[in-house]
Structure of Amino acid racemase:
Amino acid sequence: MSYITINSSKLSYNFNFLNQLFTKNQIDWAIVGKLLCGNEKFLKVLLDISNKEICDSRLSNLKIIKKLSPKTQTVYIKPPAKRLAKSIVEFADVSFNTEINTIKALSEEAVSQQKTHKIVIMVEMGELREGIMAKNLPEFYSKVLQLPNIEVVGIGTNLNCLNGILPDKDKLFKLNRYKEIVEEKFNTKIPYISAGSSVTIPLIFRKEIPKGINHFRVGETLFFGTDVYKDSTISGMYQDVFKLTAEIIEIIEKPMIPAGNVGTNLTGESPTFNKKNIGKTSVRAIVDIGLLDIDHKNIKPKNPEIEIIGASSDMLILELGTNDSDFKVGDTVDFSMNYMAVLRAMNSDYVDKKVEKTIHSKDFKILELKN
């Protein structure tokens, strides 16, 4: 069976790296754990490493987190469906909101459950995903103030996830000003501006985070060490917290060009072939994973001699050339994975999940943070 591995030590290192960065800049942060898809084994690793609040966009995942760690603050990070108000109040300590009627439903449930439900009001800042228009924020806030058992703990925004709009100093400054306007108008204090995500982290290095932006929600950079702003990596962080391993179930020298009339394959594509390879052969291997489990375009063999040729529903075809590494049936092949590859594999019941720990955080120190 193929499996995905999480390296707990490398994840711990990345956590400490980010925690040092945020602490140095007086910023609170929460972990976005939706990538783990509610897997208890991996969530236990995360909870052992962190005492931070955990964010997710799936209520079932927050329910599992509450079961594993009742004291961990859970955050539902998309506008809730109104019909889920009862469960939201039960399993999410905080939720992100944009609809007053939904907040009314949350208020009614919070009263019923004798809880105070915290909310973050999301504001539209150009990405055109969730968020109320900034000009309507004071009126919206005034309506929320009238609702019992609802506490506004922040205003927030989302950038980059839909249309790729990048955060910048000007947008963040405006969001901070919107919060100040509400505070002045209603003689109140809103503790947090949750305006940061993985894509915003590079602005910290460039010292372009305005005063007042004091809360980040981070998933991708924690798990992959990515600089999402530049689609690159952050020096000093691990990019290989996850790896995929699959077993070779066939290895045979075969022609490099298929024979017969070409139609469309499983995914509706008509493959093309290099005519220079007509009459040539190479060693090809099949491993026990396929399109039901992974997106083969988002994984990469760790062995540079291996090339991915293609995939069907449950098999992945590899080009081994002359097989200088002397692979045999029963051997395994490791692959690096990006965010979407891990997300796809985590959602597959056919990919086993394993934990490994190859290094200990006490054996090394966090590297000096550099711009």
User: Anything to note?
Assistant: The chain has two domains: 7-233, 242-356. The longest strand covers residues 242-255. The domain at 242-356 is CATH 2.40.30 (Elongation Factor Tu (Ef-tu); domain 3). Residues 8 and 45 are 6 Å apart (CA to CA).
